[in-house]
Specification:
With about 350 residues, the protein is an alpha/beta fold. The chain has a single domain, classed as TIM Barrel (Alpha-Beta Barrel), CATH 3.20.20. It contains 13 helices and 13 strands. Helix 6 runs parallel beside helix 7 (about 190-205). The longest helix has 17 residues, at about 270-285. One of its GO terms (cellular component) is plasma membrane. This is Dihydroorotate dehydrogenase (quinone). It is a peripheral membrane protein.
């Protein structure tokens, strides 16, 4: 079915069609019985798929990456497509419109997207209120947090604190995003000292009523081996729960799309980042002697892609661009492949 309607969807601006489709899904699932039907068609449960990681129990290892549902508006509807966990955000303390449109581009020849969204979101208070009312039914929800565009890097830690404190009671784990290429100078926070400062500060606050939440760090695929060595050291020093590898890439190597598209500013996601993402996962896993969990994301368009990430050392995986290109049946196909 999706193969038939995808060409129609792909005639429209990627950002506009994203909101049209997600909004339509939300409205359609208000029809009696449709949500249950989708769950039956797209869901897939098997005891061997369950994972226990940083104190959380995941019904399966396939999640939806941050960016798809920034404001937590479609969690219950998206959960019916079989995800074991959903990550919302990236969210910032204050609402912000993001970068000027157009800011998302399809590279169909490469099964990729370029985005320069710029952390467009409604702010952490809106997200927190949404999450307070979500019916979870065992679904794990992660909160991906960032800084506002106008916040100088020297004060970035305060933005992460605000998001962390506001979401503490409504998410199951946190992701510190310092790796998006679409907020000016944000990636400078991946340097050793500023990153340690942010993570140590959050860890110091990470205990409320005897409860702490796993904190993960999302990193770029463009880091060098020496920078990855620093990441391993930082994880071990700050005692955060793990790593998400990787965000989008600024590299344009090997892209087949026309120059007018591939030279658009922003981060590339989808198949072109798959190989590098897997390399980063393998490097971190082997160099650290599997000292911490890794969530693998980047270029997962099939069960084979997911298996490669898991075999390289990932404990869980996430999809986004693959979900756009391959359709809502992707999660079930991955899960069935993993069971086989």
């Amino acid at each position: 079915m999706y193969k038939l309607i995808k060409p129609l969807f792909f005639q429209f601006d990627p950002e506009k069609i994203h909101y049209f489709v997600t909004g339509s899904l939300k409205n359609a699932q208000k029809i009696w019985g449709l949500a249950a039907l989708l769950k039956k068609v797209y869901g897939f449960d098997h005891p061997s798929l369950e994972r226990e990681l940083f104190g959380l129990k995941f019904k399966n290892p396939v999640g939806l990456a941050a960016g798809f549902d920034k404001n937590g508006e479609y969690i219950e509807e998206l959960a019916n497509f079989g995800f074991g966990f959903i990550e919302v955000g990236t969210v910032t303390p204050l609402p912000q419109p993001g970068n000027d449109k157009p800011r998302m581009f399809r590279l169909q020849e490469d099964a990729a997207l370029i985005n320069r969204m710029g952390f467009n979101n409604k702010g952490v208070d809106v997200l927190a209120r949404k999450l307070e009312s979500v019916k979870r039914n065992g679904l794990i929800i992660g909160g991906n947090i960032g800084k506002n565009k106008n916040t100088p890097n020297e004060e970035a830690v305060n933005d992460y604190i605000k998001c962390f404190d506001r979401l503490f009671n409504v998410v199951d784990y946190f992701v510190v995003n310092v790796s998006s290429p679409n907020t000016p100078n944000l990636r400078a926070l991946q340097e050793k000292e500023p990153l340690k400062h942010i993570l140590n500060t959050l860890q110091q606050r990470n205990l409320k009523d005897g409860l702490s939440k796993p904190i993960l760090l999302k990193i770029a695929p463009d880091l060098t081996d020496s920078q990855l060595d620093d990441i391993i050291e930082i994880v071990q020093e700050t005692k955060i729960a793990g790593i998400i590898a990787t965000n989008t890439t600024i590299s344009r190597d090997g892209l087949q799309a026309p120059a007018s598209l591939k030279n658009e500013m922003g981060g590339v996601s989808g198949k072109p980042v798959g190989k590098r993402s897997t390399e980063v996962i393998r490097y971190l896993s082997e160099k650290s002697n599997k000292a911490f969990p890794i969530i693998g994301v980047g270029g997962i368009h099939s069960s084979k892609d997911a298996k490669e990430k898991l075999e390289a050392g990932a404990s869980l995986v996430q999809v986004y661009t693959g979900f756009v290109y391959e359709g809502p049946g992707l999660v079930k196909r991955i899960l069935k492949g993993l069971v086989r």
